[in-house]
Amino acid sequence: MNMMDMFGKMKEVQSRMQDAQQTLSNVTETGESGAGLVKVTVNGLKHILTIDIDPDLIKPEDREMLQDLIVAATNKAMSNIETKAREHLRQATEGLLPNIPGLNLDGLM
């Protein structure tokens, strides 16, 4: 692969990465805690979309436990979306660049 081809590919990679980043809002992941009593859904931009709380948990005496469950579900969703978003971006640029050891595009996410 000559340098001109490489620069052309880099422009294409950059364009595809921008397109993929724009569609990350459509990639979602849900984290659960308390055996599904609390569910938090986030998107690939790491924005919380929904928090679903089982109605049985909404009692004043359970307030502290509910807060802990929300934090746990949110952290799980955020952890899971990272992998999903990385895979989304990998698929968007698949086949554009040769396998170059040490070339890591994760920082573009």
Automatic annotation (TrEMBL):
Database matches in InterPro entries: YbaB-like_sf (IPR036894), YbaB/EbfC (IPR004401)
Keyword presence, Cytoplasm: yes
Subcellular location(s) per record: Cytoplasm, Nucleoid
Record-linked Gene3D superfamilies: Nucleoid-associated protein YbaB-like domain
Keywords associated with the record: Cytoplasm, DNA-binding
Chief location bin: cytoplasm
Subunit structure: Homodimer.
Family indicated by similarity: Belongs to the YbaB/EbfC family.
General function of this protein: Binds to DNA and alters its conformation. May be involved in regulation of gene expression, nucleoid organization and DNA protection.
The protein's name: Nucleoid-associated protein M0L20_05865
Species this chain originates from: Spirosoma liriopis
Lineage start: Bacteria, Pseudomonadati, Bacteroidota, Cytophagia, Cytophagales
